[in-house]
Automatic annotation (TrEMBL):
Superkingdom of this protein's organism: Eukaryota
Gene Ontology biological-process annotations: secondary metabolic process
Family affiliation: Belongs to the metallo-dependent hydrolases superfamily.
GO cellular component: cytosol
Name assigned to this protein: 2-amino-3-carboxymuconate-6-semialdehyde decarboxylase-like protein
Organism: Hyaloscypha bicolor E
The keyword DNA-binding belongs to this UniProt entry's keyword annotation: no
Length: 365
């Protein structure tokens, strides 16, 4: 365990609670879990890009995906004091409308109960019944606010099916702002398969995970910015996965494209009341530190501020390919990036490792 003075908090760490695993095992289209004979081993297939004959489908799925004791074991191995767990993608996006309310209620309560088994060590981001319609979603937001360990919600980029610039989402963003529940924005769908070309399956999962995921997040949040969400719901708080995708790096270019756009000017959208991408990065956005490199992390820190960046692991994804047990390279790389970018033991590094998350997400029981 890390010393009591500088707790380490992992804000990007997933679970599929047992009832969600049961749902996945009952399905034959993505997302699903099944074996591929002759191997009896179960595999989790969730990404559109990994559901092909030509790649090794999905990934092996063991108890690290659903057993909360494994999460605690992982935390202990990596000196993580507190984890803010979230349902992994693709959440409840695919659930039929009539089942959405019940599924979200059950899964959110189950995750909250799992947190209660380790008081003070586990908190959570809840999941919204997105297919259920506005009233059901807003009702679940109110319920999440009352659940002891819930500290926000995890959201993909499709929203109600039309993306995050959909005006129908505004009452939901408003409800989240009013409940002071931040959105943890996380990718899932990536980019259309045609972008990766004919040889994509030769490259395993690299292209969709390394590039598809971050671009999806960047596009999702840029569409929110362009549609004026942050002027209409000015205190909405978001935590962007993977250090904002490419947003810190591209913010200047996005700003320049906005300022030089004749259509936006003609529509009167370039006035003084417009919040710039830079304003939004500093007032509405937090960034996780799941970027695996000093340069990317420095861009995140410069864009949003060292008090708005938070350590994460993406567990149980990116396990070591060979050795069993011991420390994970993916986690160590993120620790190293924080140390190099902010200085080992500095107040800023302590903030990024845990202090910022404790303050922003109120992680005290
Ligand atoms: N990390 C995630 O959170 N989800 C994936 O599907 C892969 C990596
Ligand atoms: Zn993740």
């Amino acid at each position: 365990m890390a010393s009591a003075k500088s707790p380490v908090v992992d804000i990007h760490t997933h679970v599929y609670p047992p009832s969600y695993i049961k749902l996945l095992k009952s399905r034959s289209s993505i997302p699903y879990i099944r074996s591929f004979p002759p191997s009896p081993a179960l595999r989790l297939v969730i990404l559109p890009a990994e559901d092909t004959e030509s790649t090794s489908r999905g990934r092996p799925v063991g108890p690290e995906y659903y057993d909360i004791n494994k999460k605690i074991e992982f935390m202990d191995t990596h000196s993580i004091d507190i984890s803010v767990i979230s349902l992994a993608n693709p959440w409840l996006d695919w659930v039929p409308a009539a089942e959405a309310a019940k599924a979200a209620g059950r899964i959110n309560s189950e995750v909250n109960e799992e947190c209660g088994k380790f008081p003070g060590r586990l908190f959570a981001f809840g999941t919204l019944p997105l297919s259920g319609g506005k009233d059901i979603i807003v009702t679940e937001i109110a319920r999440l606010k009352e659940l002891k360990y819930m500290r926000g919600i995890i959201l993909g980029t499709t929203g109600l099916g039309k993306g995050l610039d959909d005006p129908e989402l505004l009452p939901i963003f408003q409800a989240l702002q009013d409940a002071e529940l931040p959105i943890f924005l996380h990718p899932h769908y990536g980019l259309p398969g045609s972008v990766w070309g004919e040889r994509a399956s030769d490259y395993g999962h690299v292209l969709p995970l390394a590039l598809g995921f971050p671009l999806e997040t960047s596009i999702g949040v840029t569409r929110m910015i362009l549609s004026g969400v942050f002027e209409k719901v000015p205190d909405l708080q978001m935590i962007l996965a993977h250090s904002g995708g490419t947003l810190p790096f591209l913010a200047g270019r996005i700003e320049s494209c906005i300022e030089h756009d004749a259509h936006l000017k003609a529509e009167g959208k370039l006035g003084k009341r417009r919040k710039t991408v830079w304003d939004i990065l500093k007032k509405n956005i937090y960034l996780d530190a799941v970027i695996y490199g000093e340069i990317g992390l420095k861009a995140a820190i410069q864009a949003s501020g060292e008090d708005r960046v938070m350590f994460g692991t993406d567990h149980p994804f990116f396990p070591p390919l060979d050795e069993e047990g011991g420390k994970w390279l993916s986690v160590e790389t993120n620790y190293e990036a924080i140390k190099s970018a902010l200085g080992s033991g500095s107040e800023e590094a302590k903030g990024a490792l845990g202090g910022n998350a404790i303050r922003v997400l109120n992680l005290r029981v």
